[in-house]
Amino acid sequence: AEDKLSLRDAARYLNDGGIRTRSGNPWRSSTLADILRNETYIGNAYTFRHASVEPTHPRSRTPYRRVKNTAKRLRPPAEWIPIPIVSIIERPIFDAARAQMQLNTERSHRNNRCNQYLLRLLTVCGLCGSRIYGVANNRRTYYRCSAPTNRRVSPEDHPVSIRQPKLDDLVWDALVDLMDDPERLEAHLAKRLAVPETPRHTHEKEAHERALAALDAEEGRLIDAYRENVIDLEQLKTQMQKLKAKRTHLKGIQEALARSSETPLRPSVTREMLGDLSARYRRAMANADFSARRKIVENLVTQVAIYPGRAVVSGVIPIDNGRLSPAYLLPPGSIAQACRAHIDLLAFTGHKGLQGPPGTGGLVLNRRTDSGGQSSLIDEMRPHLQGGTWSRSQSEEQPDMLPDKFEGGTANGAGIAGLGAGIQWVLERSIASLHAGECELTAMLIEGLDQLPGVILFGPSAATERTAVVSIRAAGKAVSEIGLRLDEEHGVLCRVGLHCAPAAHRSLGTLPEGTLRLAPGPLTTRDDVSWRSRLSLRSCKDENARCRAVPHELSRAAR
Question: Is 376 helix (H, G, I), strand (E, B) or coil?
Fold first, then answer.
């Protein structure tokens, strides 16, 4: 999946490396395809998958048969009974390999080895919606609808065919003209923004609805198994409690997704952003070969609908909006595009949102060139600390190649492994789902703290307008005292003080004492937050003070 190999290339790679199947035979592409279609390898085994039915076309014509249901029919997946087994392949790797196999199927060149089609996989017939493929005839290449070939219509009634070089040049010239005119880009953007915004988190909501339906079906199967004396009462109670916990968790995520969908997502786009976009694409288009043109077209064009005598091109305006919206709402690839276009050095920590151990992080180096063709500043930078020559043990000097140039000393192997495991854990649960859960818990925490007398709550009251970090102070009590009582008496972990941000506390007027900070995380439950609010009530109570909230302007200045 990482090397984007075909099944045939993957089989060849395994055979060349001396790796054989369990039976000792060479690998074949069909064997790998069977593995990627079988979820048993990731720990998903099922029973009760088939039902016995009467055959539609019985072999024997004799009317009498002792056993009539001799054929099998696949049941709906909701009726399958899962069997927990040990997984051999990790789920992210399995899903990535299956996605790559599907992508290889869609983008296969098939029998084309000599012709280059700029709009390959992007063309459809405007009359019937069928795929349009490239065909060569008398050393000329065409885009032609597949419907006549599949004998659905006659070629005379379906004259959708156009010379390939002509259509490629027309589409490419139209893209160049569009990028040369930022005013047209602005007009297209205004037209797009006039369309009502589509609901967010649609796929996540549908997935959780399917999961809830599967839980209902599993609950019915457990009851049937108890009635048939397959399981006893204790086993039924244990399984029903597990299902109840899963259902509560899924419903909580559904409610959080519904609340987060109420806030608008569209960022404000300025004319300067469009001008910068046009300039970068003009530079890329100036001397682009076929490979570069193909990448640009894939980035801008989503579909080319061909009609007799005309073509309609649909596409997207890929604006780098990393500065306009949170990272978890960015479309795939836009963060990488923003880094390549605007960022030389990008530092990140591992022990916060990535769930890695303390003391881990990373620095992304971008060796981009400026508009004048000058090399990146990364090549001119010298490391601050040196030690250990790594890949050049025979040398006494630090290597000058990347990334060895900036990796002095011994790498934190254990920490890096923990960071990798944390990132994998986050990706398995999806960033959107984790954020929705944190928004829900933050809203519960704010609601509970807002009812406490004498508590000062910093930041906006809406959970969707802040991160999952809540800072408070209590009138008449030191934050260090509150934090100590929460820790020693109730086992509630929190942070007190200035949190390495003295400038933020200077803006809030909380120097030198600081604030007490509570931060719900992915492993925090609804019961934890409710319990924590009640404990905070006893620890922070002051009968002579009133609860007040810091104005939004001050909290925004602190952020």
Answer: coil
Q: What is the pTM of this model?
A: 0.40
CA distances from 438 to 57, 419, 510 (A): 56, 21, 26
pLDDT at 90: 78
- pLDDT above 70 (res 157): no
**Token digits for 210?**
């399917």
Give residue 171's pLDDT. 92
Q: Strands 123-125 and 301-307: what pairing?
A: parallel
Please list, in sequence order, all residues whose beta carbon lies within 8 angstroms of the beta carbon of residue 390, skipping any fewer than 6 positions away. 399, 404, 407
pLDDT tens-digit readout, 84-107 = 777 788 777 888 888 888 877 766
pLDDT of residue 324: 26
Q: 10 Å Cβ neighbour count for 482?
A: 20
Q: Are the beta carbons of 128 and 158 closer than 8 angstroms?
A: yes
> What element of type H or E holds 442?
helix 431-450
Distance of CA 212 to the CA centre of its chain: 22
pLDDT at residue 410, rounded to an integer: 80
Output the average pLDDT for the chain: 76
The residues that bridge with 46 in the sheet, in sequence order, are 82
Which among 11-20, 91-100, 239-248, 514-523 has the top mean pLDDT? 514-523
| Helix ranges restricted to H, 141-270 | 164-179, 182-193, 202-227, 233-260
- For the beta carbon of residue 253, count every other beta carbon within 10 angstroms: 22
Average pLDDT over residues 74-83: 84
The pLDDT of 367-394, averaged and rounded, is 66
DSSP one-letter string for 38-74:
-GGGGTEEEES-EEEE--SS-S---S--S----EEEE
pLDDT on residue 107: 63
CB 76 within 8 A of CB 35: no
Q: Are strands 140-145 and 161-163 parallel, antiparallel or unpaired?
A: antiparallel
The per-residue DSSP string of 273-337 comes to HHHHHHHHHHHHHHT--HHHHHHHHHHHEEEEEEETTEEEEEE------TTTS-GGGSPTTHHHH
Q: Please state, in angstroms and rounded to a whole number, the distance separating the CA atoms of residues 107 and 101.
A: 10
**Helix (H) / strand (E) containing 532:** helix 526-540
Question: For the CA atoms of the chain, what is the radius of gyration?
Answer: 30
Spatial CA neighbour of 367 closest among 384, 351, 381: 381
